[in-house]
Amino acid sequence: MFRNQYDTDVTTWSPAGRLFQVEYAMEAVKQGSAAIGLRSKTHVVLASVNKASSELSSHQKKIFKVDDHIGVAIAGLTADGRVLSRYMRNECINYSYTYESPLPVGRLVVQLADKAQVCTQRSWKRPYGVGLLVGGLDESGAHLYYNCPSGNYFEYQAFAIGSRSQAAKTYLERKYETFMDSSRENLIKDALFALRETLQGEKLTSSNCTISIIGVGEAFKVLDQETVKGLINEFEVVGEEPPADEAAAPEQGSDAAGPDQGTPAEPDVAPMDI
Amino acid sequence: MNMVDSAPAMHNLIGSESDSQRTLYPYVTGTSVVGIKYKDGILLAADMGGSYGSTLRYKTVERLKSVGKHSIIGASGEISDFQEIMRYLDELILYDNMWDDGNSLGPKQVHNYLTQVMYNRRNKFNPLWNSLVLGGVKNGQKYLGTVSMIGVHYEDNHVATGFGNHLARPLLRDEWHENLTFEEGVKLLEKCMRVLLYRDRSAVNKLQIAKITEEGVTISEPYALKTFWNFAAFQNPTAGAEGSW
């Protein structure tokens, strides 16, 4: 009876000038576990929180290498993220086949955004339910972009997406002015601290985060767990121990159980049920 | 019934083969292009002759062109195919500029693109009948390379196409060095072009020299070389060749 009349397909406008399906897709990004990115003049660091959907399962991969000079961190539907990563890899390979040089990051991001935009303008399609932080290096330096399901894209000095990303954004906003001249190590350090903010009390360990880096003279690579462990210890990125009751009943009702865990979202959180 | 139906199909099958038009041999051609690296960039030289078979039919064919901000190209071989290549390149550069994002294709990228185009066309048994020389400077890096009609490509400090490979490159191997000034470079190229003029029947005495540096491209006005035809061997070319006419 009071069903939303304007969200049955992507191309239908609401009288208020909104596209609900597109907004739902953007909501899916907020439900995924957090991913953050930050850059200096020479480096980009991408980092993500790993959340397993259950005690028994492994977590899903959130950071992908696209090419030696581009990497991507995702939040939202992992399946969509993988499709888009594959597309980006293809574009990079084709470009370097034709021109024997790396595809400029900004151009890849525009192509990706155009691809996402098409999905918002075809009634038989659905928007991608994934947000991508694209980090890369080209002749104009280091870049960090955020690609949204709506087809919008933005360039950032530092950004965070996914569940509880606001906490990380607050941290990054406080410190971003130092990032431009930051060293590689300090950039990773800030990534770890920003990431910790999204955990809200939970402890940051090498097993619940992924860190990747790309920089001048350094091809994109995801740091291995040992290295991350070392860095966490070195920087003393300790989080508060979770309170006893929370530790006993972890995850219940938390909005971190988002789409990229493969579990159905809690009914009170999912934006799709109207 | 089938016979009636299949007859036109068969005709098409055969027809498609014989109707297709390809360059089987070139019509109007330009001769050698010579290119060298020098202290500040790249120099290319080419004459302006266009041969219709072995007839020197056209005298003002521009065979040196700029490609975007960072590259110059010189072409020998079929002139019309070169004009088509220039259409490809102008479109390529236009689309590159339209990104308006501060990135631009350099000589290496253009060279690689051309290599793909040439090789792709030869694989369709429809080659672009040219040998191309590509030079340029970007981010302080000098680049000089060449592509043939079948996609053979390489980079070098000095390159030449066609007869230039036989007559100019030996001179360049002897006299080229990294620190040639612009004047020395032009002098060396003129020496090459003069030898080509003397010994390559398709060469004409009207040439251009193109220069590219970090500052940009300049293509000279056409000019002629001073020649001296009174060498004994020119005056009596068959001396020592008994029985020759």
TrEMBL record, chain A:
**Coiled coil region boundaries:** none
Residue ranges, annotated region (Disordered): 239-274
Alphabetically ordered keywords of this record = Cytoplasm, Nucleus, Proteasome
What the entry lists under Pfam families is as follows:
Proteasome, Proteasome_A_N
Where does the source fall among the domains of life?
A: Eukaryota
Q: Which SUPFAM superfamilies match?
A: N-terminal nucleophile aminohydrolases (Ntn hydrolases)
Its GO biological process terms? ubiquitin-dependent protein catabolic process
Compartments in which it is found: Cytoplasm; Nucleus
* Gene Ontology CC terms: cytoplasm; nucleus; proteasome core complex, alpha-subunit complex
Mainly resides where? cytoplasm
Q: Proteasome alpha-type subunits domain: from which residue to which, for each copy?
A: 6-28
Question: To which protein family does this belong?
Answer: Belongs to the peptidase T1A family.
**PANTHER family the record matches:** PROTEASOME SUBUNIT ALPHA/BETA
What's its job?
A: The proteasome is a multicatalytic proteinase complex which is characterized by its ability to cleave peptides with Arg, Phe, Tyr, Leu, and Glu adjacent to the leaving group at neutral or slightly basic pH.
Share what the entry says about its subunit structure, partners included.
Answer: Component of the 20S core complex of the 26S proteasome. The 26S proteasome is composed of a core protease (CP), known as the 20S proteasome, capped at one or both ends by the 19S regulatory particle (RP/PA700). The 20S proteasome core is composed of 28 subunits that are arranged in four stacked rings, resulting in a barrel-shaped structure. The two end rings are each formed by seven alpha subunits, and the two central rings are each formed by seven beta subunits. The catalytic chamber with the active sites is on the inside of the barrel.
The protein depicted here goes by the name Proteasome subunit alpha type
Q: Which organism is it from?
A: Buddleja alternifolia
TrEMBL record, chain B:
- PANTHER family named in the record: PROTEASOME SUBUNIT ALPHA/BETA
Q: Which residues form a coiled coil?
A: none
Decide whether keyword Transferase is in the record: no
The record's subcellular locations are:
Cytoplasm; Nucleus
Query: Where is it mostly found?
Result: cytoplasm
Tell me which GO cellular component terms the UniProt record holds: cytoplasm; nucleus; proteasome core complex, beta-subunit complex
What family does this belong to?
Answer: Belongs to the peptidase T1B family.
GO biological processes? proteolysis involved in protein catabolic process
Protein name according to UniProt: Proteasome subunit beta
Q: Which domain of life is it from?
A: Eukaryota
InterPro entries (alphabetical): Ntn_hydrolases_N, Proteasome_alpha, Proteasome_beta4, Proteasome_bsu_CS, Proteasome_sua/b, Proteasome_suB-type
* Origin species: Buddleja alternifolia
| UniProt keywords, alphabetically | Cytoplasm, Nucleus, Proteasome
This chain's function reads: Non-catalytic component of the proteasome.
Q: Which Gene3D superfamilies match?
A: Glutamine Phosphoribosylpyrophosphate, subunit 1, domain 1
